[in-house]
């Protein structure tokens, strides 16, 4: 039976992001970075908005400028020209070290200080901010709990006494120490094995549901990008945005062959991985109990034009399917046909599963329908192969329609900016800010 540990992400709903309060928007306005006297631009006139409280993933080939873009936000690298706004403030308005105390930064292999304990590592920024000792101690323990490490066991350990995944958790705790509104994560899980990586991705999504930070996340891994990103910016050389859209759009309406190449040839399967089984239209199924009379179930099947009934036990757990053919000549109650001691349906799908997991279950069961169950294994609905197919084709149709509408309005057929209504404004020339120091 497929099991899922975390609820999948629903493809981002731009309207929903307004409800999130945790972070502030970040705007990069005509930002260019040229290193030293190089004629090449590492980042070439990039304009983009990272909406408050969202995870935006920068995805692109090696050397396209992802890290440079990210490091200009916390001024580890100074833009050559252009402006970066964090909330209402120009990043230039603050001293870089001051700015960085309010922007969490997580890098590959955590970057913890080896000679400091876990607690001392996490306490770095609060100490610089002059917090009282007691407050720091409490905050360290709170953060260790938040990232799933027992403070009593881990606070006094040194980084070398931690696994790679645990170091990364401490790295995240350290970045969150002073409760920054913005978190920059540069391939934070890149060096971890696939299982630890998936666990930490799930943890990050859980944390984000609680904290709603504005997160800029750099990765090479398309599955990671699709899973984590409320929006994904697909970048080409010079951080040129080729497409900037939720995963659903990237998969069903790729801007061009370049984006298709990134996503690979399994768009529909990837889409299934992102879509919760709960999001599809429930099958028309009659619920029957052992004590129900067969004539009543037959009547309800006819009334609702359903061709299937699921027989449930006293705790609403599925026993097996029945239908008009089996019930046609029978009389008495369902219990005369089916006993709670009979073999139960062995394949069910948890309600928090993805459509990908539902497909797996459907391909491995004798029926063409599988019950969906909650945490107590009580029946909540059912899914068929046809419904999955229908759902996926609806998603493609919806994107086709959006594309048609955008073209009709004279816009780009794919999303290029976070807030489409801002596209014109963002394209307008902004006053370029003078050259910064070369990092
Ligand atoms: N300090 C530097 N001095 C000179 N050139 C640099 C410097 N840092 C980066 N570059 C160049 O800028 C370009 C963008 O580099 P950047 O590290 O931002 O790319 P990236 O997309 O993050 O790559 P990767 O995925 O490999 O980490 C590259 O051509 C790189 O060689």
TrEMBL record:
Q: Work out whether the entry's keyword set contains Transit peptide.
A: no
| SMART domains found in the cross-reference section | AAA
Give an example GO molecular function.
ATP hydrolysis activity
Record key words, sorted: ATP-binding, Nucleotide-binding, Repeat, Transport
Q: Which family does it belong to?
A: Belongs to the ABC transporter superfamily.
Q: Which residues form a coiled coil?
A: none
Q: What is its EC number?
A: 7.6.2.9
Report the InterPro entries cross-referenced here.
AAA+_ATPase, ABC_transporter-like_ATP-bd, ABC_transporter-like_CS, CBS_dom_sf, Gly-betaine_transp_ATP-bd, P-loop_NTPase
Name it. Answer: ABC-type quaternary amine transporter
Q: Where is the stretch described as Disordered?
A: 1-21, 406-439
> Which stretches are tagged as biased composition: Acidic residues?
419-428
- Species of origin reads Nocardiopsis gilva YIM 90087
């Amino acid at each position: 039976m497929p099991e899922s540990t975390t609820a999948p992400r629903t493809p981002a709903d731009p309207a929903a992001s307004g409800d999130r309060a945790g972070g502030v928007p970040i705007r990069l306005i005509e930002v260019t970075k040229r290193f030293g006297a190089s004629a090449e631009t590492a980042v070439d006139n990039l304009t983009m908005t990272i909406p408050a409280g969202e995870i935006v993933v920068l995805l692109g080939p090696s050397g396209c400028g992802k890290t440079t873009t990210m490091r200009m936000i916390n001024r580890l690298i100074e833009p050559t020209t252009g402006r970066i706004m964090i909330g209402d403030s120009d990043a230039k308005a603050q001293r870089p070290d001051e700015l960085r105390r309010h922007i969490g930064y997580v890098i590959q292999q955590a970057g913890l200080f080896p000679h400091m304990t876990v607690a001392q590592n996490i306490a770095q920024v609060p100490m610089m901010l002059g917090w009282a000792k007691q407050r720091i101690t409490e905050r360290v323990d709170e953060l260790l709990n938040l990232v799933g490490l027992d403070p009593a066991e881990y606070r006094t350990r040194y980084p070398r006494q931690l696994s790679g995944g645990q170091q990364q958790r401490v790295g995240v705790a350290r970045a969150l120490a002073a409760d920054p509104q913005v978190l920059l994560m540069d391939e934070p899980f890149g060096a971890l094995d696939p299982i630890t990586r998936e666990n930490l991705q799930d943890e990050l999504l859980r944390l984000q549901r609680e904290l709603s930070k504005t997160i800029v996340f750099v990765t090479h891994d398309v599955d990671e990008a699709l899973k984590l990103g409320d929006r994904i910016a697909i970048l080409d050389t010079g951080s040129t945005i080729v497409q900037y859209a939720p995963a659903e759009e990237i998969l069903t309406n790729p801007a061009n062959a370049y984006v298709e190449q990134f996503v690979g040839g399994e768009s529909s399967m990837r889409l299934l991985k992102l879509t919760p089984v709960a999001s599809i239209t429930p099958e028309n199924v009659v619920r029957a109990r052992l004590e129900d009379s067969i004539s009543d179930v037959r009547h309800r099947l006819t009334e609702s034009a359903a061709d299937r009934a699921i027989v449930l036990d006293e705790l609403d757990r599925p026993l097996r399917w029945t239908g008009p053919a089996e019930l046609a000549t029978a009389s008495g109650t369902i219990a005369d046909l089916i006993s709670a001691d009979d073999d139960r349906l062995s394949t069910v799908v948890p309600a928090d599963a993805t459509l990908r997991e539902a497909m797996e279950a459907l391909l491995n069961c004798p029926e063409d329908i599988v019950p969906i169950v909650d945490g107590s294994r009580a029946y909540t609905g059912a899914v068929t192969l046809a419904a999955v197919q229908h759902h996926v084709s609806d998603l493609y149709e919806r994107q086709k329609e959006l594309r048609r509408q955008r073209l009709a309005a004279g816009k780009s057929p794919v999303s290029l900016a976070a807030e489409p209504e801002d596209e014109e404004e963002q394209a307008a020339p902004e006053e370029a800010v003078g050259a910064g120091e070369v990092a």
